[in-house]
Amino acid sequence: MKSISSRLRPHVGRRRLRALASNQSAILVGVLIVLIGVFSALEPKFFSVATAGNILTDWGSVVLIAVGMTYVIISGGIDLSVGAVVGLSSVTAAWTMATVLGVGQDVQGSAAYGTMLVGAVVSVSVGALVGLINAFLINKLHIAPFIATLATMGACLGFSVIISTGMPIGSANDFSLIAPIDSSYVPFSWAVVAVIMVVTILGFFLHKARFGLYTYAVGSNAFATRVAGINVERQRTKVYVLSGALAGLAGMYVYIRLGAGSPSSGNGRELDAIAAAVIGGVALSGGVGTILGTVLGTLILFTVQSGLIMVGLAPDWKKVVVAVLIAAAVGAQSLRRGGGSQP
Amino acid sequence: MKRSFKLFAVAGAAAILALTTGCSSTDNSETAETSAAESEATVEGDPISIAFLMGAEADPFFQAMKVGAEEEAAALGVELIWQGDPAQYSPETQIPIVDAVLALNPTGLVLIPTDPKALQASVDKAVAAGIIVVNVDTRVDDLSNVLTFITGDNQDGGAKAADALAGKIGYAEGQSYQVVVGSSSPTATTNQARLEGFTNRIAEMYPGIEIVDVAYSESNPEKASTNVNNWLTKYPDLSGIFAIDGTNASGASAAIEAKGLKDKIALVGYDAYPDNVAKIKSGLITALIAQDPAAEARLAIQAIVNKVKDGVDPESREVVIPNVILDSSTSDADLKTYTYVAN
């Protein structure tokens, strides 16, 4: 039952298949389809608009920090502080709205927008500031990114508990921003639409603009980049500030989702972001990776999470499945790079 | 230029050196004076110092406990030494802190042991040094040398949650209902005890209620919200949710609010975070099981003071403080009393 073209030109067909197999994004889409198929077979309710909505709601916060992480890893670094920044920025935004502006939880719907805008500015600024501190530690004090961002992670966790005394702070919110636009047909919310726009712009910046080119250059060969006359330190600073600001934006997203800023709302998210980027084909050695890969990697992560809850498997299995996916993704990369000769 | 800079640096260093040595010598003499004064006073038998060693400063539960401890200590003229790890609830971090505090030789020690076995040696050491020991919230295995053990009752809290949930659902014999439990950790003893109390009560009193799933959020409210989103998709006829702690109550209530199911799902939570108490009023949370950490702290300090001043042993070696149910029928004054506060 072969199609005519493939019967006539079998070699071309095979070559196309091979090209497809070496395309990371195509593989990821394939994995996603298999996952959806398996989960739908095990639990028919999984194949629904509502589930898509649930997955996209989870995707929205983590894809923001995963995209920031993608920039940082491509530039040859790592940013462990982003999870803690989500908590700190959401708490600081909530504290500003509730304590400084004195707006309570009773302000809901469109009346909340003014207050929430202030919260968003605070949230993103806090994130950018932490990014600036990370860049300072790495550029000026020459601390390895892993250690520098581990230190700021601890400081952010501490500050978020100090500001909130460990409790969530509620203030003005519009929950309809996080609810699906139409519960029968359109599974995503306006908040997710905003995230998609931000991610698209950042994809353009990485792949089509000079900013992206410099980021790849710094991560591929910092020395050669410096010789070529590019200010490596300045580029690094921009990348860490971007990562911090995106974590701040994720903090505001989580605030909208919960209607409150909570110090523990970013717990463990840095590892989710790294996992998503790696599954998406970003190489920890720097210089390699795409935004599309990370977007799909994050989607796979939360499809697995939703699927396991829907099927009724203990969430501990998520860790196992994600571990297998990471091993498969990294294994596939090194095989493609040349027979897996690298240890 | 260079030489003058060096000169400045040397002069500056010398000045700093002089200042620090000067300071430290005054410090020394001061300490000597105070310790002399203290020992004199102890001979007179007057000032009592109580070391209060809690689990983790970041936990709102201990923040509320601190308020009670400080009030009671001030009222009774007792010196309070409040100590504990800022964020980690673990014996590894607690034992060194206990050792350090025992070196101050306080009159009494109020200990929240983070492990019943690991902290036993510290309690024995304190008792051997003539320090009066009280356990609060959790206990060491051997209570024979402990003046009294004051605790909340997590099993009872779980049972009360079952009653509140059944009441809100409008439980009737012969009908069947589905409920789920949002927990933080499968290993935390408080979570286990609450779940056990809840499950037993349901089995005993409400055979028509089926607990269809239990999922864990790792104390992250966003993950708690994810769990609830997926449950609401999988179980369209879900009647109620038991959120086993404060972060789960935050995440669950946000998910219900975003999905517009406020009047369809009964939500019973735990812990009186101010933000969640406000949601009782708006009808989003049916009831909260509140503990009374401040009362636990007050009783502990009273017990030590009575023992030291009058040689009176407490009436009971084990005091269980009942949980309080906060719901729409609770008076504003009571809501205010039981809401966890921090300073």
Query: What would the CATH topology of the largest domain in chain B be?
Result: Rossmann fold
| Tally of distinct domains of chain B | 2
Strand order of the largest sheet of chain B: 2-1-3-4-5-11
Q: What is the number of beta strands of chain A?
A: 2
| Mean of residue pLDDT values of chain A | 90
Biggest chain-to-chain interface with counts: A-B, 41 and 43 residues
| Main beta sheet strand tally, sense and closure of chain B | 6 strands, parallel
Low-confidence segments of chain B, given as residue ranges, are 1-44
Largest sheet features of chain A? 2 strands, antiparallel
End-to-end CA span of chain A = 44 Å
Q: Fraction of residues of chain B in helices?
A: 40-55%
Estimate what percentage of residues of chain A fall within beta strands: under 5%
- Shape annotation of chain A: globular
What is the radius of gyration of chain B?
25 Å
- Quote the CATH topology of chain A: ABC transporter involved in vitamin B12 uptake, BtuC
List the SSEs and their pairings.
The complex is a heterodimer of chains A (343) and B (343).
Chain A: H1 4-8, H2 10-21, H3 24-42, H4 49-74, H5 82-100, H6 113-139, H7 145-164, E1 169-170, H8 190-208, H9 210-220, H10 222-227, H11 232-258, E2 260-261, H12 269-279, H13 291-311, H14 316-338
Antiparallel strand pairs in A: 1-2
Helix pairs in contact in A: 3-13, 4-8, 4-9, 4-11, 4-12, 4-13, 5-6, 5-7, 5-11, 6-7, 6-11, 8-9, 9-11, 12-13, 13-14
Chain B: H1 2-44, E1 49-56, H2 60-76, E2 79-85, H3 91-102, E3 108-111, H4 120-128, E4 132-136, E5 148-152, H5 154-169, E6 177-183, H6 189-205, E7 209-216, H7 221-234, E8 240-243, H8 246-258, E9 266-270, H9 274-281, E10 287-290, H10 293-310, E11 318-321, E12 324-327, H11 332-338
Parallel strand pairs in B: 1-2, 1-3, 3-4, 4-5, 5-11, 6-7, 6-8, 8-9, 9-10
Antiparallel strand pairs in B: 10-12
Helix pairs in contact in B: 2-10, 5-6, 7-8
Tell me what you see in this structure.
- The complex is a heterodimer of chains A (343) and B (343).
- Helix content of chain A is 72%, strand content 1%.
- Chain A has 343 residues and is mostly helical.
- The longest helix of chain A has 27 residues.
- In chain B, helix 9 links the parallel strand 9 and strand 10.
- Chain B contains 11 helices and 12 strands.
- Chain B is an alpha/beta fold and 343 residues long.
- The interface between A and B is large, with 41 and 43 residues.
